[in-house]
Amino acid sequence: MPRTRSTDVTDETLMLRYAAGEVAAFEVLYRRHKGGVFRYLLRHGASNASEELAQDVWTSLIRVRAQYQATAKFTTYLYRLAHNRLIDFYRAEGRAEWASRDADDDTEDIVTALPGQRTEQPEVQVESKNIADRIRAAIAALPPAQREVFLLQQEGGLSVVEIAAATAVPEETAKSRLRYAINKLRAQLEDLL
Question: Which pTM value belongs to this model?
Fold first, then answer.
């Protein structure tokens, strides 16, 4: 089969190609979404297990590839697998709620990743780290259901409809949770806006 290289090919088409046996299609999907899936799991507080959980999500995708049908966006399907893996993980841990992620993880700070010459200056780097820490803390302080929909939107790029499908809740519930999460973050970070 021909190697899949085009960035114009949709995720859904790639997944269907992979289900039909085109391994290169999986490689493209993995490159496109590995970072988002990892960050979604990491920011749910599974920092010491995020790599393993991410690997489990991709293994699940491989296992169920023959059953895949393009009835929704591929990302909805992928983040549904990630959502289900998180639930299984926290059930096994005996935790009723998802914990916040560790403050000492080494993920790239959103703020320090912004381009600009001033980011080279030590005082700007310290300020950027402090802002990123505040943003992380504000996200971690959200109730688990609100944090989840917010991260699915921000890390997964999912719409409200797709979030509802991925989390198996009504669309209005997903919309409300997202609205509450954004309002809480704005209130906590108002001085940064």
Answer: 0.61
8-state DSSP, 49: T
Structure tokens at 153: 């939107």
Name the band, by pLDDT with cuts 50, 70 and 90, for residue 102.
Answer: very low
pLDDT digits (tens, 9 = 90+) for 104-121: 444 444 444 444 444 455
CA 168 from centroid of its chain's CA atoms: 16
How far apart are alpha carbons 92 and 103 in whole angstroms?
A: 23
DSSP 22-44: -HHHHHHHHHHHHHHHHHHHHTT
- CB-CB contact of 13 with 20 (8 Å): no
Q: What confidence tier does 191 reach under pLDDT thresholds 50, 70, 90?
A: confident
All structural domains of the chain, each given as residue ranges with its CATH number in brackets, are 11-101+142-192 (1.10.1740.10)
Distance of CA 10 to the CA centre of its chain: 19
Average pLDDT of the residues of the chain? 80
Q: What is the DSSP string of 143-180?
A: -HHHHHHHHHHHTT---HHHHHHHHTS-HHHHHHHHHH
